[in-house]
Amino acid sequence: MQQSQLTVIGCGVFGRAIVNGLLSDGSDEYRLALTHRRPDALKALKQDYPGAVVTSDNKDALVWAAPAGQSHRHIVVIETQPRYTGDVCRDISQAYTEASGGDKQQLVVITVCPGISVAQLESWLPKGTPIVRTMPNTPISVGQGATALFANESTPEDVVVEMRCIFKRISPVVTMIPREELIDAVASVSGSCPAYIFYMLQGITAAGESLGLDAGATRQLVAQSCLGAAKLVQETPGESLSELLGKVCSPGGSTERAIKTLDRFDTSTAVQAAVKEAWLANRAMEALALGSGSNLFFFRNFNIPPTAKEPMDRGRTVLRPYSAADDLMWIKYGKAPQGHLA
To answer: Signal peptide span per the entry (predicted)?
Structure first.
């Protein structure tokens, strides 16, 4: 059996989840290589994955020199901060091009770096490299993630199938999205969703404790209630969320009163606004990532007064009230007025 290689560059929570998923059934279908810059992280990786190549050098010969005839595909997962992605891709390109010994491996690049487009990645990597952008969420660390994938035109169908199989081990829901820009929507909906839920759970558990419930018991009750509610949503696709809500709210009952209280505070609108804010921030991230060291700014509901003459500061976001609709604007302005900086 040919053994593919999987390398995780900047191996953190996401990379560990993938590796753990691959190792969970005891198979050895992938030769593993893991890189990180920090000595403490390298030490932990060596302890946790004794069978893997672990190094601080992305161009380490041990990472790229696969045994002859044993490796037909080299999957490289990039889990670095966006500002380092360009350098990492150039390292990959150089190491892959210079690799010798055995058959040339097919390079496949997976990225979890927000804000770095396929077009930008293609400009840094060898021509024709299959590239898969991913948007997972933190529950992948317990094998319960929700992940969206977008593949570039150079990605053949068999690679797409393999990527889905890899992610299915840590993410019961794996969705291929048809357009790259939808990654930002996925990030704001499912990517941030655990945070929305944790925020809500904080309020519920605090209320439970104020009513005399034990903190540990409250946490367990609320957590299981969330799991059960999610299971109901998954297993009753023919019922709308409104119908499921209605089944919990007896007319005149306590739950109905609770929901009416949430409505009085316009909670649904607040949640939608929060998701939209996350989406806008994700849209801005590409501008910020590509504008590192340049004069590229993101404005949302904020504007610079036409008469602003103050000294400017590069790389900051202007906080100035803007009366128009909350549209996204990427403005190459150059500088931001002093005193109105995020």
So the answer is: none
